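#struct-pred
JK: can someone run the complex with zinc ion? inputs below
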Amino acid sequence: MRSMIRIKFVLTSLAALLACSTLVFGADCQVKVTGSDAMQYDVKKIEISKDCDKFTIELVHGGQLPAAAMGHNVVIVETAKMMGIATTMIKMENGIDNGFLPESSDILFQSKMVGGGESTTLEIDPTKLTSGTAYTFFCSFPGHWAIMKGDLTVL
Ligand code: ZN
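RT: done, structure tokens with the ligand placed:
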């Protein structure tokens, strides 16, 4: 009986420790970005710590319009290449399932496209990004990139 209580205590302590470490180390390795029916992100700047094993962007579509009308995703590219990608690669015929983008090594990370009330997560491996390089995150739904974009850097 006594050993059972002890095991329970150890497990409870372990759970508390895990919850605590998630709070301390996890906070900086994730960000929540909300997109709206007004074609806006609520976050304009993302900083990723090199200390993060992985970095998670949670994209929430806080609006009500369906993906076909007001879809939002998060695509990460080098800022220097962003304009070229946005003006030449985003095409309706690439399809919404591909974020209207073709296969390209210039597209470093890309989330699913979501509609109102939906959300998705994008996991980023920080080792695939370089400190000191300017990156841009943007929505690749046709016409959205001019407004729906922000800066992403690795510190
Ligand atoms: Zn969008």
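RT: quick notes.
Residues 72 and 113 are 5 Å apart (CA to CA).
Confidence is low (pLDDT under 50) at residues 16-27.
JK: thanks, will look after standup
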